[in-house]
Amino acid sequence: MEPKLIGYDETPIDVTDTNKHIVVNADPYNKSNPEIRPMQETDEICSPCVKPFSQRLQSSAKGKLSQIFENRDCSSDLSGTGTARSRLYELCASYCWKPPSFECCKAEGPDHLKQFTCKVTLEIEEAQNLILEFVGEPLSKKKDAAESAAEGAFWYLQHEGYLPSRGN
């Protein structure tokens, strides 16, 4: 008896033009041929969140960033659920920025009452190599100190006009 590979029933798809975007509509459990059709251009998509990144950040950092967030209906996901750290990671990922860098920069006090201070660094290459650093308050847990630094980053971005205010 010859061994059989279980679960491998896929037929390979020959993609010749790599510059075209394609959408494959197929049921992974169905053995029939999938339907392949061209993906619609970003101009035809109704969501205002979909724009080529090169159109988003072009000249001044502050003006363009605030314009991005004003035009973005998806900004509600940055203000609601999750920790400030996770929302900061989501913000950076959604605009193709480098991920935020969290660093414990100071630990002070006796061993049984340590206070940790963390800083977060945001690097935005598209905005003339803009690097922002935010330092949180000293707290007894490193995780809480990093959260404090992330909240400080959101506070700064909001009050300097990079993000829309929560009242909007």
What do you see in this structure?
The chain is an alpha+beta fold and 168 residues long. It has a domain at 53-159: 2-Layer Sandwich (Double Stranded RNA Binding Domain). 28% of the residues lie in helices and 19% in strands. It has helices at residues 53-56, 61-70, 76-79, 84-94, 142-159; strands spanning 22-25, 35-38, 101-108, 115-124, 130-135. The strands form two sheets. Strands 3-4-5 form a three-stranded antiparallel β-sheet, covered by helices on one side. The chain starts with 21 loop residues before the first strand and ends in a 9-residue tail after the last helix.
Topology:
Elements: E1 22-25, E2 35-38, H1 53-56, H2 61-70, H3 76-79, H4 84-94, E3 101-108, E4 115-124, E5 130-135, H5 142-159
Antiparallel strand pairs: 1-2, 3-4, 4-5
Strand content of the residues, in percent?
15-25%
Shape: extended
Q: How much is the average pLDDT?
A: 70
Order of helices and strands: EEHHHHEEEH
End-to-end C-alpha gap: 68 Å
Low-confidence region ranges: 41-62, 68-77
Task: Give the CATH class of the domain at 53-159.
Answer: Alpha Beta
Percent of residues in helical segments?
25-40%
| Sheet of most strands | 3 strands, antiparallel
Sheet with the most strands: spatial strand order: 3-4-5
> Can you name the CATH architecture of the domain at 53-159?
2-Layer Sandwich
Q: Could you say what the CATH topology of the domain at 53-159 is called?
A: Double Stranded RNA Binding Domain
Pfam families: DND1_DSRM
Protein name: DRBM domain-containing protein
InterPro entries: dsRBD_dom
Keywords: RNA-binding
